[in-house]
Amino acid sequence: MPDSPRHEITDVKRSPGELSFEARLHGREPQRISLRSGTGVEPYPEAALAATLMPAMRGGGRLEMDEPISPRILRMQREFQGIQRAWSREWVFDDPPLEQVEVIAPIRAVERRKPTGRVAVFFSGGVDSWSTILGEHDVTDLIFVRGLDILPGFAHQEGLADRVEARLGEAADALGLRLHSVETNVRDLPEPNGPGQPEVRWESYYNSALASVALFLGPLFDRILISTGLAYWNMSKIGASWMVDSLWGNENLEIVDAGGLLGRVERVERIAAHPVVQKTLRVCWHNPGGSYNCGRCRKCLVTMATLDALGQLPEFETFPHALGEERLGLLAAQEVQEPLHLDLCEEALAAMRRSGKPELVRPFETLVANGRRKLGREDDPSNGELEATAAQAKLEEVLSSRSWRMTALRRLAARGRN
Amino acid sequence: MQHIADLRREPGELSFEARMADAEPRRIWFRSETEVVPNADGVLAACLMPAMRGGGKLVIDEPLSPRVLRRQRDYQAIQQAWSHDWNYDEEPLKEVEVEAPSRPPGSTAPTGRVASFFSGGVDSFAAIVANPEITDLIFVRGVDILPRLTHQDGLADEVEARLREAAAELGKPLHVVETNVRELSDPLIRWEPYFACPLIAIAHFFAPLFDRVLIAGDTDHETQPLMGAALLVDELWSSEDVDVVDWGGRLNRERRVEMIARHPVVQNTLRTCWENPGGAYNCGRCRKCLLTMISLEAIGALEEVMTFPPRSTSASSPMPS
């Protein structure tokens, strides 16, 4: 019987504004991982564990760390693993499930400190983080991370991180909040061979990276908020869902997955009229030619359409001021490949219908019908329109079903009526 | 409007009048011989889900933990989302606006004590065996054993006596709490999604004594339905003073039985039955008894567990559907 894999976190170096460590995973050459910030705070050492645990779970075995860590985190990482392992069996990717890792680490003495009164939110400039910032009135600080969604190795993103940071800095100043910038290469852990060949996919890992950064800056704050992408009523079992990241909180820092109370459209409604949002909103992950928002990908187009439905698109400096025929055609032709993306498009379709703008409804009907067909949720998408009989059958199915997906539709319809 | 009025906190007792929508006002109480002055946060835990049956506003005059007040919104949203999929023919839960003052966050020094709820069942025994840092046990009268059920007459006393012996052998103090909280919940909400709420209320009752209170769940992360205490949702009830922990999701039922089966205290105390015909400690004939007995038999441990009927009287019984 082969030995179970052995993983190590060694040579942990902590100094104000810097944490670095060597991670040796799956018997490979060690990787030097670092987190750096101009904010001179001495990081919590368990930041290294948060970054490394899920990549180690790709093979199971034992993970040893010589630096003492928080007793609470040493306890709760077992539950984090148990949940992620269970979820990984349902992920829509063709990857094998994650496996349990035995974590061996000494514990450090912990004293409860007095509250600092400071609350931080991760801030990318996107809809979710903006919604959290404007919805939580006790936020005092913002955190921008370089090296997660904007990667230094991508030629098409050359210079983008600097421009995004500059804009977010202006936004933070306008809001009277302090912006902390952190640079990291933690993404090398789940993607040792590059983003094209992930061992653990970004969709399931990103919240671990954010938890690691939260623990890096943690001594400054009572609470750090990670904005989740979905609402509880259509939440998937992946990423920052169901408050799973609260398991990474230690005795003095609460980590919160925020935002589950609102759907995507409600979040856009919350932020759309804010003048600082209108100068800063950033949703694009494609960034062709280093663009801030390309205005042509699914995420850009759905966001633009939602803003248009609210009558706010012309006010936004970070998007083209109108959709136009060409972009509406592009929107209708987008491919919806994952159930959660279809959920978001269906939610947007309901908003378009409420807006009374038929030119926005039509491309979403096509997009949703095609997505339903692709994902096996629709019977008759022959012309991109729902046939009356098929719609009636679907309605009856939805009304009588108790499955999560079907009742998600029902909830969506109920919210539309309200 | 729903209102929690006349809230009283005294050593060993918490009580209040619950004026819920569509229900008669009721005096609800939690009592213990342990003379701790209870924390009021548990009142919200006990009342929130019943209040969600009617929606609207829930007013509590007593100051509550800022953290609990913040996070109850997420707890509600999660339970509301899950309630759409409950397999009962009922309306989903409705969101409630909680109106309560916030108390200043304190920074209490850790007590070094960790408690676990203790019913004598597989799950709570597994929690005790797996977590040697547990210092105290809590037994609750009035949740699964109800004084109004004639077939359970005298059972609570017998169970308490056995659990006291077990706790003494384990060297851990047993705190007994009695409550009538089901008079509040039963008219409004089913026990299956609600069961953790009174336990959370009791965890807050004891908050001045403990750093952490463990609630042993009965399913593992891979099989649990999205209901009640799934996905560690009770963590949302942790306050600045006490951590509420849903324990056990990493272990399935078979693994838990394996962990505890050879423990001599378990062998004298194990209790799994909820049907209790004729006041039986374990009837040995219901689905839960039989499944546990089969699991014990599979690892050759059934004969050593003294709390089930002898094999000759139960092994040939057909399993109820």
Report what the structure shows.
- The complex is a heterodimer of chains A (418) and B (321).
- Chain A is α/β, with parallel strands linked by helices.
- Chain A is 40% helix and 14% strand.
- Chain A contains 13 helices and ten strands.
- Chain A has helices spanning 47-57, 71-88, 127-135, 160-175, 202-217, 264-271, 275-280, 298-309, 324-332, 339-355, 358-374, 388-400, 404-417, and strands at 6-15, 18-24, 31-37, 61-65, 101-104, 119-122, 141-146, 178-184, 223-227, 254-258.
- Chain A has a ten-stranded mixed beta sheet.
- In chain A, a hairpin with a 6-residue loop joins β2 and β3 (31-37).
- In chain A, α1 (47-57) packs antiparallel against α5.
- The longest helix of chain A has 18 residues, at 71-88.
- Mean pLDDT of chain A is 90; it is low at 380-390 and 401-407.
- Chain B has 321 residues and is α/β, with parallel strands linked by helices.
- Chain B contains eleven helices and ten strands.
- Chain B has helices spanning 41-54, 66-83, 122-130, 155-170, 182-185, 191-194, 196-205, 253-260, 264-269, 287-298, 311-314, and strands at residues 2-10, 13-19, 26-32, 56-60, 96-99, 114-117, 136-141, 174-179, 212-216, 243-247.
- Chain B has a ten-stranded mixed beta sheet, with helices on both faces.
- In chain B, α1 (41-54) runs parallel beside α2 and α3 (122-130) crosses α8.
- The mean pLDDT of chain B is 92.
- Classes of the chains: A alpha/beta (418), B alpha/beta (321).
- The interface between A and B is medium-sized, with 32 and 27 residues.
